[in-house]
Amino acid sequence: MKGYAAILLAGGAARRMGGVDKPARAVGGRPMLHRVLDAVADADQRIVVGSSGPLPRGVRTAREEPPGGGPVAATAAGLAWLDPGTTTVAVLAADLPLLTTAAVAELRRALDDRQSSDDPPALDARQSRDDPPALDARQSRDDPPPALDACHSRDDPPALDARHSRDDPPALDAAAAGPEDAPAAARRETLDGRYAALACYVDGDGRRQYLCAVWRVPALRAALDRLAATRGGSLDGAPVRGLLAGVAVREVSWSGSGPPPWFDCDTDEDVRRAEEWTR
Asked: What is the CATH number of the domain that holds 161?
């Protein structure tokens, strides 16, 4: 498989946990954020959006605009830091303590497969618990902006525009990339379903877990631009389901051993369940 980057979404109010720094909560003796970082240790780039805590060397931090603007705005902020030529990116919540490298690799393999005529070519009406009608529970426009950590320097750019920044990589050259990576192919993904734009896990009830997903970068950029255009150029508070409108999705059911990698921790009870799985 080709290389990939990873964007981890670590902001949010965590109101159902009393406003704690949820990604910093330990499961199995390690903060959830660091467990997710471990799962993507093989990524060419790891970008954490919304965290103010210490991070391993080489992990870049970013901040969505405005701070607390939601998972879609945070995704756009992380995307702006991708190295030019990156064609695949994992978009992951930072509260997935059971995620593994093998589980991410399964998503990447699924995205590499061509869409068959039997696969659902577009988003359906099913709701994931990660996709509330407005802001995701991990991010709220009411969140106070945490202080930037030491990974930021005076050379870092100002707050990133929700759609793109001066650091955005140029559009991929269709002649240099494979058909599934070229912008034209990204458009086909949303038009005829020949290629999936993203692969995401579905839980035991068939609900898509959009914040445990791997995207083709051109398709993600196009989806962000389309959604911003419908909202006056702003992604502040944009719902994840708005980002997925008309996008071809490859659904993946976890077939490996062990606990479900898509399991996220929104409550104290979720954390207790995750702890039991890690014993």
From this structure: 3.90.550.10
Q: How many folded domains does the chain comprise? A: 1
Q: What angle do CA 168, 170, 176 make, to 5 degrees?
A: 140
pLDDT in tens, the chain (279 residues): 889 999 999 986 556 565 677 899 999 999 999 999 999 999 999 999 998 789 999 999 999 989 889 999 999 999 999 999 999 999 999 999 999 999 999 999 999 886 443 444 444 444 444 443 333 333 333 443 333 333 333 334 333 333 333 333 333 333 333 333 333 443 344 434 458 999 999 998 999 999 999 999 999 999 999 999 999 999 999 999 999 888 999 999 998 778 999 999 999 999 999 999 998
User: Structural domain of residue 152, as residue ranges?
Assistant: 5-278
CB 44 within 8 A of CB 35: no
Considering the entire predicted model, what is its pTM?
A: 0.74
